[in-house]
């Protein structure tokens, strides 16, 4: 799996990245779900969905799974997660979003070229608004509809700021790749595939 830039994929480091089991970060996700339930905000508090920008509200139709905030090419986007290759992940995301995320084991068998990376931060900046599943900055995408590299199938890439680095919000795949090259972050791939279609992006929506 390569570390991409916006709309393309390339990487000088992915061959050396360890693949970690999903259970490595399950305790983080479980703790986050519990915290969300305690504060009464549920998934909407986690993802900052209490206030949706008017320009990005078109995709929130009745009956649609709740969209999540992310970044692409230094711009905010909205996306869904609808299926996951791992049963535990599907259950946890279902609880977080209060909307079914279906377990589809066959996703794990899809060829790597059909996957696009999604960068999920496990430490770093804790934003006041929209956040990723661990309570840190929103996820970062390398492609959106209209890009040649776009795919709704996302290979989870866990991003961890190293102790020597000063965390900051990264809002593009280029910035994530640059931080990795500079030795500021470590990226691991747990081997999990999640269907995450983008529904609002800088030049369009569905």
Give the tally of β-strands: 13
Radius of gyration: 16 Å
Helices and strands: which structural class? Answer: alpha+beta
The share of residues in extended strands comes to 15-25%
Approximately how much helix is present in the residues? 10-25%
Which whole number gives the mean pLDDT? 78
Count of all domains:
1
For the record, give the distance between the C-alpha atoms at the N and C termini, rounded to a whole number.
28 Å
A few lines on this structure:
This protein has 206 residues and is α+β, with helices and mostly antiparallel strands. Helix content is 19%, strand content 24%.
Keywords, please?
4 helices, disordered N terminus, 19% helix, 206 residues, 11-stranded mixed β-sheet, alpha+beta
Structural features, described:
This protein has one domain (4-49, 67-205). The longest helix has 14 residues, at 26-39. With 206 residues, it is α+β, with helices and mostly antiparallel strands. It has helices at residues 26-39, 42-47, 87-97, 173-181; strands spanning 4-5, 8-9, 68-72, 75-79, 83-84, 102-103, 116-121, 139-141, 153-161, 185-188, 193-195, 198-201, 204-205. The chain contains four helices and 13 strands. The model is unreliable at 1-13 and 24-60 (pLDDT under 50). Strands 3, 4, 5, 6, 7, 8, 9, 10, 11, 12 and 13 form an eleven-stranded mixed β-sheet that branches.
């Amino acid at each position: 799996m390569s570390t991409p830039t916006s709309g393309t994929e390339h990487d000088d480091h992915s061959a050396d990245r360890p693949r970690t089991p999903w259970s490595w970060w399950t305790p983080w996700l479980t703790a986050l779900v519990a915290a969300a339930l305690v504060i009464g905000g549920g998934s909407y508090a986690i993802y900052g969905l209490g206030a949706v920008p008017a320009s990005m509200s078109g995709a929130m139709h009745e009956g649609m799974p709740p969209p999540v905030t992310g970044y692409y090419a230094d711009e905010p986007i909205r996306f869904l997660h609808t299926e996951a290759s791992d049963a535990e992940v599907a259950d946890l995301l279902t609880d977080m979003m209060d909307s079914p995320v279906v377990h589809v084991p066959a996703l794990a068998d899809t060829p790597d070229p059909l996957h696009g990376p999604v960068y999920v931060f496990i430490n770093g900046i804790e934003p006041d608004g929209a956040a990723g599943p661990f309570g840190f900055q929103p996820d970062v995408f390398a492609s959106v509809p209209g890009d040649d590299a776009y795919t709704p199938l996302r290979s989870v890439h866990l991003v961890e700021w190293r102790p020597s680095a000063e965390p900051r919000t990264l809002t593009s795949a280029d910035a994530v790749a640059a931080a990795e090259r500079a030795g500021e972050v470590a990226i691991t791939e747990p081997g999990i595939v999640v269907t995450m279609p983008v529904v609002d992006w800088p030049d369009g929506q569905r």
